[in-house]
Amino acid sequence: MGHVKSVGVEQDPASAAVAKARAPGALIHEGDFFQWAVHTEARYDCAAGNPPFIRYQIFKGEVRKRALELCNQLGANFSGLASSWAPFLVAAGSLLKSGGRMAFVVPAEIGHAPYAAPLLEWLTGRFARVQIVAVREKLFPTLSEDCWLLYAEGQGGQTDHIEMTVLDRFKACNAPPRPDLRISMADWRGIWNRRLRPFLMAGRHRELYRASIEAEGTRRLSETASVGIGYVSGANSFFHLRRSDVAAWGIPRALLQPAIRNGRALPASVLTKADVTRLEQEDAPIFLLRLTRGMKLPAGVRRYLDSAAAQEAKTAYKCRMRDPWYAVPDVKTPDYFLTYMSGRQIGLVRNEAKATCPNTLHCVSFRDASGATDLHAARRTPFFQLSCEIEGHPLGGGMLKLEPREAGRIALPSAGTLSRLDAELAGEAVTELQRWRHYTADQRRLRA
């Protein structure tokens, strides 16, 4: 039975009915939590629960508007990418009495998502104690979402650090588990880029990374190169041609550029012209049709643009938004390809073949030769993989994702610093972070 003074809010009528039946002593409000939070004058000793995990793409409309407006008034400014659970916790924390406490299940994204940072800033500025319990083994085995736990107490206070407990598995207990770490907010904001995920590693691993980052001559990838996604064609199957297609339609080779469509097509180290020739001979869709506005179109190209496949392709959203629809923009010829999503190994491949790629890969283009030299020295080392693990973030299914801004933070130590690094220690750290994202060697993943 629910506590006689407990209150719940549920917007789904069926779920509200279940809650009322299971907790007849509680007061259950039916409706939107944020609307209720704005108008209620009640204040509570504690709050607990499992907030709604609704991605920003679905968390929209009036509900989202109310949530973000309320959080802005409370001093928490979330970006447009915030999922529902983060503003939910701010609203819940604001309803506590002085000295109150709260405990919630939270997605593991609290350890790395940029939109989670305003939440942690708000919590440490409003509570005397904030504790994160990171749990490697899934709390909900049937869900793809990894979940951690959040505990905060002493509403009305503030703290200059976050307490963190790192567990392989969670066992029910009457009080929060003992903290393993006290993470200063200064460190969290600084070297660790407002992320808690690096604290899943042992202290010796973090010190190795910190020392390497702070060493003389270490640069971030964005300091020496541009990093961004490849082009968006809008209709990949139409714009990427096989050798047999080129011959059948009579399309001139001058209007084609070799294109690597995903990481599976990349070799381990260098993409050469011989690799492109092999893919061409295998009749892979290796050629991007490169047309520009105002150019004179050869007869074969005109026939292709009048084909049934073209009529379907031109209805795609990205194609409809372009003038002309068949001119693919932002086609780059990068110095290196960097895999966007990876399993065991993050792929970084030199582009000797002068190929291009769509947005399934990152394009890395250097502004100076020294940056390319630094990257070439670092890319085959465990430290490079460690930097990708720390600066990237995990996805479901054990994959690691590198957004362009995350890829730009990959660290490139000098050759001297790399020569002094403990490669075995760096490898240990990589293995540990892969264990936390549930990657195992026998999984069939995208080839890095």
Structure description:
The chain has 448 residues and is α+β, with helices and mostly antiparallel strands. The chain folds into 3 domains: 1-31, no CATH class; 42-199, Vaccinia Virus protein VP39 (Rossmann fold, 3-Layer(aba) Sandwich), CATH 3.40.50; 224-436, no CATH class. 34% of the residues lie in helices and 21% in strands. It contains 19 helices and 21 strands. It has helices at 13-22, 33-39, 61-74, 85-94, 117-124, 185-189, 203-214, 221-224, 236-239, 243-249, 273-281, 299-305, 308-313, 317-320, 369-378, 382-391, 404-407, 415-420, 423-436, and strands spanning 7-10, 27-30, 44-49, 96-107, 127-135, 147-155, 161-167, 181-184, 219-220, 225-229, 240-241, 256-258, 270-271, 287-289, 336-339, 341-342, 348-351, 361-366, 393-394, 400-401, 411-412. A 6-stranded mixed β-sheet has the order 3-4-6-5-7-8. A 5-stranded mixed β-sheet has the order 10-18-15-17-13. The protein starts with 6 loop residues before the first strand and ends in a 12-residue tail after the last helix. The model is unreliable at 441-448 (pLDDT under 50).
